[in-house]
Amino acid sequence: MTRFLIVTLLFSCPVWAAEWSTKPGDIPLSTEELEALAGRTLTFYDNGKSKFSAGGAYSYTYASGESAFGTYSIAEDGSVCVSYRNGFGRCDLYVFSDDRLILIDQMGNRFPVREE
């Protein structure tokens, strides 16, 4: 029973000490820069929008107009972790690369943020 509980907790936790697939020249955002996300909306090239609200509320709006809601927090490793209302979660690392803001997901996929 204890082993089941530990495994359940591990898989429900959004971060498992990810090793981020950064490239030479990637500069992770500082804690201050991550905290400054509050009140901002980041738009990606697929027209998806991540909105970080003061107090930790988060929403992602797809190009179709549908939205997913949750909360976000800044993890000790500098990643931004989102816990969605539907029970799913994810952590992403934001870096500057050649003066462009890039989101790196736990799979190593890179998503550049459009400048607005």
Q: What do these coordinates show?
A:
Strands 1, 2, 3, 4, 5, 6, 7, 8 and 9 form a nine-stranded antiparallel sheet that branches. The longest helix has 11 residues. With 116 residues, the protein is mainly beta. Helices cover 14% and strands 40% of the residues. The radius of gyration is 15 Å and the shape is globular. It is built from two helices and nine strands. The N terminus is likely disordered.
Concise overview:
14% of the residues lie in helices and 40% in strands. It contains 2 helices and 9 strands; from the N terminus they run H-E-H-E-E-E-E-E-E-E-E. The N and C termini lie far apart (51 Å).
List keywords for this structure.
116 residues, mainly beta, 9-stranded antiparallel sheet, 9 strands, disordered N terminus
Largest sheet: 9 strands, antiparallel
Rg from C-alpha positions?
15 Å
Distance between the termini: 51 Å
- Average of pLDDT: 87
The run of helices and strands is HEHEEEEEEEE
Helix/strand-derived category reads: mainly beta
What's the number of extended β-strand segments?
A: 9
3D shape: globular
Question: Helical element count?
Answer: 2
Oligomerization state of this entry? single chain
Strand content: 35-45%
Low-confidence stretches: 1-17
Percent helix among the residues? Answer: 10-25%
